[in-house]
Design brief:
The chain contains 14 helices and 18 strands. Strand 11 (about 380) and strand 12 (about 385-390) form a beta hairpin. The protein is globular and about 110 Å long. By secondary structure, the chain is of the alpha/beta class. The protein folds into two domains: about 1-75, no CATH class; about 105-460, Purple Acid Phosphatase, chain A, domain 2 (4-Layer Sandwich). Strands 1, 2, 3, 4, 13, 14, 15, 16, 17 and 18 form a ten-stranded mixed sheet that branches. The protein has a six-stranded mixed sheet with strand order 6-7-9-10-12-11. A two-stranded antiparallel sheet has the order 5-8.
Length: about 475
């Protein structure tokens, strides 16, 4: 009984102690605060361990976030090598993104030491990729993030018909360089531009059969393409009434010759798809699509077909041309069309010219330039878009009483035109320097134009 009594007394004391603890708020509160402070102390010790004693251990604890921080610190610690590698990767990506492609998806390589950072020199339709140097040129000249603020002004230069006739070749051979054909002051204007475009009124070839029943047929030996390089020509249109003077064989020779000289070409090709294909080039962060077409061919067979070499014809009223302009507008900031049209020696554009011009402007063209009449015609602004109907002859025969370079300055405000007058005698084309002759030239062009003003410096404005 003693044992049992002792056990019950012990259990009673235990119950009394438990009840006493449960009914003491002061003791419960003190226990809770001691627990909180213990947890905080442990947390502080853990943080001190990882930040002071073992900072590298954070990677294992915080996972991807700290791994990213650790990688960034490693790149900074590696110095210039890591920085250079990063920039090279970004530059390579930007170069790839900025490679200008034509409508068929091929690459147009435009890069040249002659033009520095402009990022172009010519066009090779057979090339599927840029060389390393050409890619660098493109990357340096353009915007790699699409920011319009990086786009710089661009100066385009246009001339009319070019054909190294016997008179021109005599002048060239006598001087031993292109300075015997084009005056130094004109060459300076061309060199000051970013891109120079002309109408090539002949094929480069030594082959082919002369077109029958044609009064004038032209052909120039392929090695004379060096004259185009000396002149600074970047792109030519082949859509005219002389590119097939010696048949498709000579025309295709001309294309190969231009490709080998890195000079771009539009308006003719091995089939219709190639003939209507634009050349798209990036200049100072702006993209330009150039298209060539003709409304003047001697026979229908000169027009390119689905499986026939030839040139891009606009005898359908410009319907196909308008479609090509619309497609090019999706790939470029500016679409420029070089047309061969009109009537020889006629100083005024006809209704066919005006109709085609207006149609392609409605389709999205930003500038229209023309040739074929062999004389200068007037200018017009249609819906705010400039149209130069004919630039006449630039380098051609013995005498050219009046010619001009057409300068087109492109910036965020639009396209501003300027005419730089000149003339030619004995195969030598020179810039007009006489003030009275310059003023008379501008007055004449103003009289031939519609709704146009020309100031004393040759800048053209819509009235």
């Amino acid at each position: 009984m003693k044992d049992k009594k002792d056990y019950e007394q012990l259990r009673g004391r235990s119950r009394h102690r438990d009840n006493s603890n449960n009914t003491s708020p002061h003791r419960r509160g003190r226990a809770v605060w001691m627990g909180v402070w213990s947890v905080l102390l442990i947390a502080v010790l853990i943080m001190l361990y990882f930040t002071v004693i073992n900072p590298g251990g954070g990677n294992k604890v915080f996972g991807n976030k700290d791994n990213g921080i650790a990688n960034e610190e490693a790149e900074n610690a590696s110095g210039a090598d890591a920085f250079t590698s990063n920039n090279e990767n970004e530059a390579a990506a930007a170069t790839e993104a900025l490679k200008p492609v034509n409508a068929g998806g091929k690459v147009n390589p435009f890069a040249s030491a002659d033009k520095g950072s402009q990022g172009y020199s010519g066009h090779g339709t057979g090339s599927d990729k840029l060389s390393e140097d050409e890619g660098n040129g493109l990357s340096e000249s353009g915007s790699d993030d699409g920011d319009n603020s990086d786009k710089q002004p661009v100066r385009l230069m246009f001339a009319g018909d070019v054909y190294p006739s016997n008179y021109v070749m005599d002048a060239y051979n006598a001087a031993g360089s292109i300075k015997g054909v084009v005056s130094e002051s004109y060459l300076e204007d061309i060199r000051a531009s970013d891109f120079f475009i002309v109408n090539e009124e002949f094929p480069f070839s030594s082959r082919g059969t002369q077109a029958p029943d044609k009064q004038f047929t032209f052909r120039v030996a392929p090695d004379k393409v060096s004259m185009f390089r000396e002149m600074g020509i970047n792109l030519v249109t082949l859509a005219n009434n002389h590119a097939l003077d010696y048949g498709t064989e000579a025309m295709l020779d001309s294309i190969d010759t231009l490709d080998n000289a890195d000079i771009a070409h539009v308006g003719a090709g091995k089939d219709l798809e190639a003939a209507r294909e634009p050349v798209i080039v990036e200049l100072n962060g702006r993209t330009f699509a150039f298209i060539g077409a003709t409304r003047v061919i001697p026979v229908a067979e000169w027009a390119a077909g689905t499986d026939r070499p030839g040139m891009f014809s606009a005898y359908d009223g410009g319907t196909q041309l308008a479609e090509t302009v619309k497609a090019a507008k999706q790939q470029a900031d500016y679409v420029i069309v070089y047309m061969h049209w009109g009537i020889e020696r006629d100083e005024m554009p006809n209704e066919v010219q005006r109709s085609i011009a207006h149609n392609i402007v409605d389709a999205g063209a930003d500038l229209v330039v023309g040739a074929h009449p062999h004389v200068l015609q007037g200018l017009e602004y249609y819906k705010g878009v400039p149209i130069a109907y004919s630039l006449g002859n630039f380098v051609f025969g013995s005498q050219i009483p009046s010619t001009a370079l057409l300068q087109a300055d492109v910036d965020d405000s639009g396209i501003r035109l300027r005419l730089i007058p000149g003339s030619s005698a004995g195969g030598y084309t020179k810039k007009t320097e006489d003030a009275a002759a310059i003023a008379a030239f501008y007055e004449k062009i103003k009289g031939l134009s519609k709704g146009v003003e020309i100031d004393a410096d040759g800048y053209v404005y819509a009235e």
